[in-house]
Records
---
Amino acid sequence: MTELYPEVRLVHIVAVTASSCLFFVRGVAFIAGLRWAMARPIRRISYTIDTVLLTAALMLMTIVQQYPFVHAWLTVKVLLLIVYIALGFVAF
C-alpha cells in the first residue's frame, strides 16, 4: 500500500488547495451579495471536494500508520479540521 503514498498525498494536497480556494471565493462572493455563492451546485462541489479530502486523509493515515490522539501533530490537524468546519458553517 505504501507504493500509493505519492499519488494519495498529491490528491490530498490538491483537495486542500481546491477546498481553501472555493471557500475563499464563496466567502468573497457571499460578502459581495452574489447569489451563486449559496447555490446548490456550488455547495455540492464543496461537499465533493471535502469528501475527497477526508478520504485521502484517511488513506494517508492508514498508509503511514499514524493516528489521531496517538501522534500529537495529527491530533492538531483533526482539531483544526473541526475548527475549519465550524467556521465554514458559521460563515455561510
---
Amino acid sequence: METASPRQNKVARLVQKELAEMFQKFAKDWMPGVLLSVTSVRVSPDFALAKVYISVFPTDKTEKVLETLNHNNKEIRYQLGQRVKHQLRLVPEIAIFLDDSLDYIQNIDNLLKE
C-alpha cells in the first residue's frame, strides 16, 4: 500500500470533517436513535474517489444505516460539494464502508476476559 501525499491527507481531513458535521445533522432526520461517526477517509491519488469509513452505534442498525447512506449518496455528495466548493476544484465520488474495527477490538477484549 502506497502512502498518501500531504495533499491527499489534507483533502481527506477536510472531507472527514465536513461529512461528520453533515451526518450529525442528517442522522436526526434519516436515522433517529443512531450514533454515526466518520472514523476515517482515504482519498485516491487523482482525488476522484473518497472512501469513507463509518462506525454505527447501535450495531444492530448498521445494515439499515449503510443502505440509507448509499441510497442518498448523490445528495450527500451534492451537499459536500456545497460545503467545500471554495476549497476543492473536484468533489470526489463517495464510497461508504463500514469500519468494523471497534467490533474487532471488542471481540478480542471479550476473548481475553474468558
---
Amino acid sequence: MIRQTRGRGINKPSGLDAALSITTAFTPFGRLPPYEDLEGDDGYPRYKYEGTDPNTFTNRALRACRDTGLPLVYFIGVRRGTYFPVYPIFIVGEDSNRSEFTLWFNWTEVSRSDSSTRALEKRYVLRETRARLHQPIFREQVMNAYGSSCAVCRLAHTELLDAAHIIDDSKPHGDPVVPNGIALCKIHHAAFDQNMMGIREDFRVVISPRLLHEVDGPMLKHGLQEMHGSRINLPRRVAAHPDKDRLEERFSEFLNAS
C-alpha cells in the first residue's frame, strides 16, 4: 500500500491541456463512505464534474484525457490526509445529465457505450471495480479503525492481518464498509471464514464445539481454544463497531455449520 498526501479535485498543471490526477476526499466514519459516489448503476466508477459548469478548465482537462486516451492517477481518501493511489485509470465516457465522467482501468478493454451494460459484462465490471477500488480502501479503513491489530488476539503485525468481511462481499449487503469488517490475523480470519470461529452480536468469540476438545498442539490450544468466550477488541469510534445485525446473521451461519 502506497500512501500519499494530496489535495482534492482535478489536478491540471498550467501549460497542459489534459489533467494528471483526480482526487476523492476521505469521508469520516458514520457518514456515507467515499466509494458510494465512485460507482454508477452499471458498476463502472464515476467522477463528478468539478463545480456546476461542464466547461471549466478542469472539466475540459478530463475531457481531453477522454479524447486522447491519456491515463490519470486516482487518489482516493482512506483517512484524513492519506490517499490510496490507483493507476492507471482512464476517462472512457461522460454523462452531462448527471455531471459526471465514467472511469475504467484499461483503455484497451473498453468496448462499450454509455448505455446499460449486459449482465455478464456488469458482473465482470463489478468484480473488477471492487478488486481495484473498494477492497484496498476497505482494508486501509478497517486497519485504521482497529489500530492495525487483530480484534481477537491483538497481534499487531500488519503483514499478518486481514480486513475480514462479516457478510461476504458477494452478497447484497456485504458492502465494503467498516461496520461490515473486522481486523483479524490470518489464522483467525481463516477460522472465521471456515465457521470454526464465530463472533456473537455481543462481540463474544465462540469456538466451534468440534475444536474445543481436540488436542493438536499450541496453536489450537492458545490461538483458538483459549479465545472461546473472550470479547473482541473494538474500535474507539462507535460508528466503526461491527454491525450487530450483520454479526447476528453471520453467527447463524456459524451455528448451522457447527
